[in-house]
Design goal:
The chain is mainly α and 130 residues long. The chain has helices at residues 12-20, 24-39, 60-65, 70-76, 80-89, 95-100, 103-122. 57% of the residues lie in helices and 0% in strands. Helix 5 runs parallel beside helix 7 (103-122). Mean pLDDT is 76; it is low at 45-54.
Length: 130
Amino acid sequence: MRTDIETMQSNERALRYWAAGVGPAYLEGAFSRARSHAAEGSTRLPPPLSPLTRGAVLDPFEVDAQGEGLLAAQLRALDLEHIRDIALTYELVPRKMAAFGTRAELIVEILATVSSARREQSSPPRSMPR
């Protein structure tokens, strides 16, 4: 079973790094998507990969969901270019900051934004004031 392209790495080293961090939640989701494509009778194959296409090395929200501290550790292992890709792909920082921010600044901002999103998802809805 196949799904559409869900992630792309810029080189073999990045692919190996990404693959080492793939967790059960990602695999279950990919399998579920592939099953639904098969149930719909879709035989469409994903388009071929372009060697010129770049993408984020990891999904920061998915990595964050796998455990506390894992996202910070994985971001620290990446170079500035990949951190910028993640920040831009997932719109975690303003474009200007992504372009000019240091590696450390971008990591801090990514962690803060992902953490804030996690807190928003886990907090109960607020009642409207009367």
